[in-house]
Amino acid sequence: EYDMIVQHIFGKDNTTADALSRYPVDLPDNNYYDSSIQQTITPPISITPSTTATKTALSTSSVKAVSLFYDNDVLYQHQNQDSHIQAIKNTRPLPANYVIDDHNVLYKIVTRKFGQRINPRYLPASLTPNVLLTYHNSTFNGAHFGIKRTFYKIRDRCYWSNMYKDIEQHILSCLNCRKNKPSRRKPDGHLQSIEPPRGVWERLAMDYVGPVPQSKSGKKYFIVLTVLFSKFVVTKAVYDNTSTTAARFLLYDVFMIYGVPSEI
Ligand SMILES: [Zn+2]
User: Fold this and answer.
1) What ipTM score was computed for the predicted complex, to two decimals?
2) Which positions ≥6 away from 207 have C-beta within 8 Å?
């Protein structure tokens, strides 16, 4: 049906954006219950499970269970062992940006852009590793996405102070990411030495320096021209780093004063 030729491209030459192959993905939303989470992760502290659901999640590693922080009883018990959360819960009246539900679980009230209000769970430190693993390391949700994407996923569901920093640190120290994130840049070319010139004004090199702090007249680049043989320098402060500026500099500040070199 299609007329085509299959051609092999070496991995190192295949620099197409791989992000495209990841779409579509679920965008951050307000669903507290995320049915796609099917991981069982051992809680960092031992607790007594009080419901059948929790018992199953904690004792049977092969059973696919909803992540721990989605279980109100587990969350309640972990929150109870966190002195900071306890202090907030015991404040009367409860501070305006918090809410406690029927299960005695503390939520934070967050107001987003355009006035949208959401109530993410207030996560005790003992459960943050679980969330980080679920949303970064698990195949179903995380798939080792980057810092921002992972943050957006988590912040709709959970809250803890310094969460962005923790997420950032978790991902920067993720071995899997370090090992497998391929560089999407084209490989650098090899350095090649240039023939040394035999006299002055034969071969010149030119480049822009900047942007540097802007001058009163608005100039923020230097254009620098060096004679490779004698290291004689011609330089000028300029407004931008365009080719027009470079051409004008060459014509009026170099050629018309010193003459035309054989090579730049
Ligand atoms: Zn990772």
Assistant:
1) 0.97
2) 223, 224
